[in-house]
Amino acid sequence: MSDDLTRATAADLAGRIASGDVSSVEVTQAHLDRMTAVEPAVHAFLHVDGERALAAAAEVDRARAAGETLGPLAGVPVALKDVLTYAGAPTTAGSKVLQGWVPPYDATVTRRMLDAGLVILGKTNLDEFAMGSSTENSAYGPTHNPWDLDRIPGGSGGGSAAALAAFEAPLAIGTDTGGSIRQPASVTGTVGIKPTYGGTSRYGLVALASSLDQPGPCARTVLDAALLHAVIGGHDPLDSTSADAPVPDVVGAARSGDVRGMKIGIVRELGGEGYAPGVEQRFREAVDVLSGLGAEIVEVSCPSFTYALPAYYLILPSEASSNLAKFDGMRFGLRAGDDGSHDAEEVMGLTREAGFGAEVKRRIILGTYALSSGYYDAYYGQAQKVRTLVTRDFEAAFAQVDVLVSPSTPTTAFRLGEKVDDPLAMYLNDLCTIPSNLAGNASASFPVGLAPEDGLPVGLQVMAPPLADDRLYRVGSALERALEERWGGPLLAQAPELVLRPELVEGGPQ
Amino acid sequence: MALTPDDVAELGRLARIELTQDELAHLAPQLDAILEAVAKVSEVAAADIPPTSHPLPLQNVFRADVVRPSLPREAVLAGAPAAEDDRFRVPRILGEDA
Question: CA angle A48-A52-A53, nearest 5°?
Fold first, then answer.
């Protein structure tokens, strides 16, 4: 029974809870039990509050029994990336500098989920301040990929993706700055959506790079992602960069799955050399599936995408160096060296030395350099020009086609530790996902099979124009239906059973 | 244009991060390699290309000028590393002779 509940989709669970077939408390308990069994090996969560989750579930059950009108996902559990605030629960952003900080307010994304009756299970692991592609930069230890515990679950939202793939939660929230929703989705065989910039509120998000960050839904099915998108999306007066536009009918698009007559562009620059053969193969097969379903496939060139990665690794550190200046040990979080012998400036330096990990320091220093007098024009200024060119490439492409596609990542999940000392190799993982963050358009990753050489999941990225997020869901659901028919069920059903090995058992702060 | 550990120490000072000798030695070559890789952006030198700082056209957003409740003082100070007399307690800011 409980295994059945943890493997069910969010849409199915919501229906069963609404009909009284099962209670939200039972569903929530089943996921907490699953966590007890697998969490020591996966380490997807940094903080779990079972009592609070069960109390929230009981409240939904009470409201349903009283005949109150509830939202379409009421009573369904969800996991929240530990970079969004949830009043009364610790928020660390994966950093020591925020260890033990308990925010007194809810992020808008959190608030909307609570108002819709979703049950928050806990906070998921991430690369420190969402800087990374492997979740190895978390100050609280890495998350393991449920497909192979020796491999990375992607980053920075590895915790959210792993929680889904390990059946610890049917839904999760991620944030995507350069691919941190799509890349983990790709390497765990799950669905990840980066909404249009401004389509979901950034209020209550611990900012990494404000012009790039975007919260979004993570799920195991396309419809589940759409249902969650509809809950969290839409204008927020608390976020001055929130788009004042209605959320497109993402749920309708996810139910339709009709790509007949759609024009789909393959981005020439996002493929070929450097892409694993199995990734290329599954990508091509998925494109053939879409063609078979009535979509028209054309090749499109976006020449400036070649410059997107270097531009991103100047813009992101520059914005991060500014955003992370608030972690100075004065008003919240860690304070080091406050022994009476150091002045405030020295305490700031000592606090940031003690509180930040290697990748965060590397990027802050890089950003400080890129913004410094004499180098600003050559680095930051040029990077912002690349951003213009990338946006123009997208505009030209979307004048010809409805959506663009590429592999989500150049390779499948690599081994933990493999790239940890080579930042440049690590950065290459975000090659395909970064252009959408620079331009702010909607983008997603959908599972399209396992690479023959290593049996690990491959993702297909779909990119749509700003505010046309519904197109992602049309393509995603068409693919999902056709591929699941071919596979005889969801891709995750092919994942090996989690084997708990003692050497992988480790604990995060609870 | 190789960065020396001294250059990195100066950047650390500007960024208010004390760095150990080990970190300085480690970071200098890594930052060099990254800077070399990202220098590719300078190939896009055309003067007529305007820079984009943000994907949305930004404008200031005003709210109605009415008093609303803010976070309670206790809730804000509860997260502080040190508080005293309903205020943040911070280390000395001015020198002894100030």
Answer: 75
pTM for the structure as a whole: 0.96
CA distance A163 to A351: 32
Cβ within 8 Å, pair A440-B55: yes
Asked if A449 contacts A494 with a C-beta cutoff of 8 angstroms, the reply is no
In angstroms, rounded to a whole number, what is the distance separating the alpha carbons of residues B97 and B3?
A: 36
Q: Residues of B with CB below 8 A from A311's CB?
A: 38, 41
* A and B: number of Cβ contacts within 8 A: 172
Nearest by CB to B34, which of A313, A356, A383?
A313
> Per the domain annotation, does A499 fall within a domain?
no
Q: Is B76 on the interface with A (CB under 8 A)?
A: yes
> Does residue A321 have a cis peptide bond before it, meaning omega lies within 30 degrees of 0?
no
The mean-pLDDT minimum among A89-93, A157-161, B41-45, B86-90 falls in: B41-45
Domain that holds residue A234: 7-307+385-494
- Token pair listed for A151: 């491999």
Sign of dihedral through CA atoms A10, A14, A20, A23? positive
Q: Tell if the CB–CB gap between B27 and A365 is shorter than 8 Å.
A: yes
Name the burial class of residue A40, with classes exposed (0-12), middle (13-18) and buried (19+) by CB atoms within 10 angstroms of its CB.
middle
Q: Could you tell me if residue A353 is inside a domain?
A: no
With tokens 């012009």, the residue in question is A211
The reply to whether A283 falls in a domain is: yes
Question: Cβ contact (<8 Å) for A307 and B44?
Answer: yes
In this structure, is residue A25 part of a structural domain? Answer: yes
Q: Are A148 and A116 in contact (CB under 8 A)?
A: no
- Tell me: the pLDDT tens digits for A92-101? 999 999 999 9
Residues of A in contact with B90 (CB under 8 A): 330, 344
CB contact under 8 A, B60 and A466: no
Which residue ranges form the domains of chain B, and what is each CATH number? 1-46 (1.10.20)
DSSP string, A348-377: HHHHHHHHS-HHHHHHHHHHHHHTSTTTTI
Please answer yes or no on whether A314 and B23 come within 8 Å at the CB atom: no
Q: Which residue of A has its CA nearest to B50?
A: A385
B42 touches chain A (CB under 8 A): yes
CA distance A290 to A396: 22
Partner residue facing B37 (CB), from A344, A348, A424: A424
Report pLDDT digits (tens) over A117-132. 999 999 999 999 999 9
